[in-house]
What does this fold into?
Amino acid sequence: MQDPSHNSQGELSDGHVSPGRHILRVLREILETMIPAVIIALLINLLLAQATRVYGQSMEPNLHTDQRLVVEKVSYNRWWPVGGPQRGDVVVFRVDPNSDLLIKRVIGLPGDRVEIRSGQVSINGEPLDEPYISGPTYGDYGPVDVPPLHLLVLGDNRGFSNDSRAFGPLPLDSVTGRAWFSYWPPDQWGLVQ
It folds into this structure.
């Protein structure tokens, strides 16, 4: 037998919703809002972009410890290639699946011959103009031929950088994405150059 103070929609006879129905309605509204938001956030993080933090001094004077960046993933996506890496791009990657993320600048592209002599980086025998570095590149390196589907990456602060001079050309599928935008601290706000 139905409680005469309730109708079939869970409303009390005075027109108010019963506490149990109200709680269910609120939970349903929360879930209807939260589930799509979580799915959208996951898709954005997995496929389009992610936030990251710079650690260390290897990219100074352009990027600094604790600077926060947005890493754009679309350009380098294997399933939807938009353009791929270009010389001068700042990329985020892992040297191996268990390593920390690193951030470096693309210097050599597939098929390039990269060499460092007397502080000068050369690509295919031509000196590379590098207005972004903090000083000369000490030591000699190479020549190294960048294999297909690989990149050669160097830090902008060459004296304090763990880069391709240590681990060799980087497989393209190790790259998470391109550092695109700096959002913290506020005085560093803008596109990553």
DSSP finds two helices and twelve strands in the chain. The radius of gyration is 26 Å. Residues 1-50 form one domain.
